[in-house]
Amino acid sequence: MTSSGGEGGAAGSARPCAILTDIEGTTSSIAFVKEVLFPFAREHLPGFIDRDAGDPEVARLLDEARALANGQGLSTAEVIAVLLRWIDEDRKATPLKTLQGLVWADGYATGGLKSHVYGDAVTGLRAWHAAGHAMFVFSSGSIAAQRLLFAHTPHGDLTPFFQGYFDTTTGPKLAPESYSKIAAAIGRPAGEVLFLSDHTGELDAAAAAGMRVICLDRGEAVVPADTPHRRVRSFAEIAPGE
User: Fold this and answer.
1) How far is the C-alpha of 11 from the C-alpha of 164, rounded, in Å?
2) What pTM did the predictor assign?
3) Which neighbouring-strand residues pair with 138?
4) How confident is residue 14, by pLDDT bands cut at 50, 70 and 90?
5) CATH superfamily of 18-28+115-237
6) In this structure, what is the dihedral angle of CA atoms 221, 227, 232, 234, given to the nearest 10 degrees?
7) 117-150 pLDDT per residue, tens
8) Which residues make up the CATH 1.10.720.60 domain(s) of the chain?
9) Given pLDDT bands bounded at 50, 70 and 90, which one contains residue 62?
C-alpha cells in the first residue's frame, strides 16, 4: 500500500494522524551525517573509549562489539580498530551506534557540534505538532543520537515535537516486521501511520506492513524513476492526515 497524503501546505486541516520519519536524507542532510557526524565520531572515538573504558556502560558496549566481531579475546585497542572499520563501512551495529551517540553527546555538550535539519522540515514539524499529529522517529542511529541531533539544531530544541524514538533495537529498517512493531508500540493501526523516508527499500518495507508512505527526494539519494511511492521535494508538499 502506498500513500499520497494529499497536496497542500504543511499544516493542513486534516484529522490528526501518526507520522514516523527517517532522519538522514529526510529531515537532515546526508552530507551532514557523512561529512560531519561520522568523521567526528571516527576522530574522537578512540580517546573517548580510552578515557571511559572503565565505565560500566562503555565496557558493556565493548563486550557487545567483541561478540559481534566473534572476538571475545580482543583487547580494547583491537576493539577500537574494529569499531573504526565499522564506521568506514557504515555498519549498522547497535554497540557502534550507541558509542557514536555517546561521542556526539560530548561534542554537542562542548559546542563542537551543531546538527543540521532542513528548514522545510522544521516548518513542517512545527505545523504538524500544532495540528495535533503524533510524531515519531525511526533511524539507524541510536535513540540517544536521535535525541541529541534534534536537541541541538540552529533552529533550537526540536525534541518536544516528538512522542517517541525507534532505532535498530526494534529491528532492521528494511524489514516489514519492524514497522509492524512500531505501529503496535505507538498504539495505532499501521494504516494510520505515515512514514517519511528517502530510502525506497525502507518505504517498501513500511508499505508492506500497511503504512502510508511518502518518498523525500532531496537530490541526495538515488530514487528509482519507477518507484511506486509518491515523491516530494520537501515537507511543504505533505498534508499528513489527508
Assistant:
1) 21
2) 0.80
3) 166
4) low
5) HAD superfamily/HAD-like (3.40.50.1000)
6) -20
7) 999 999 999 999 999 999 999 999 889 889 999 9
8) 33-110
9) very high
Higher pLDDT, 219 or 162: 162
Bridge partners of 223, per DSSP, are none
Residues 6+ positions from 232 with CB-CB distance below 8 Å: 214, 215, 216, 217, 238
Amino acid at 19: I
Instruction: Convert the pLDDT of each residue in 74-110 to its tens digit.
Output: 999 999 999 999 999 988 898 999 999 899 998 999 8
Residue intervals of the chain classified under CATH 3.40.50.1000 are 18-28+115-237
Instruction: Provide CB contacts within 8 A for 169, sequence distance 6+.
Output: 94, 143
CATH code assigned to 33-110: 1.10.720.60
The 3-class secondary structure across the chain, one letter per residue, is CCCCCCCCCCCCCCCCCEEEECCECCCECHHHHHHHHHHHHHHHHHHHHHHHCCCHHHHHHHHHHHHHCCCCCCCHHHHHHHHHHHHHHCCCCHHHHHHHHHHHHHHHHHCCCCCCCCHHHHHHHHHHHHCCCEEEEECCCCHHHHHHHHHCECCECCHHHCCEEECCCCCCCCCHHHHHHHHHHHCCCHHHEEEEECCHHHHHHHHHCCCEEEEECCCCCCCCCCCCCCEECCHHHCCCCC
- How big is the chain, counted in residues? 242
Instruction: Please give the mean pLDDT across all residues of the chain.
Output: 90
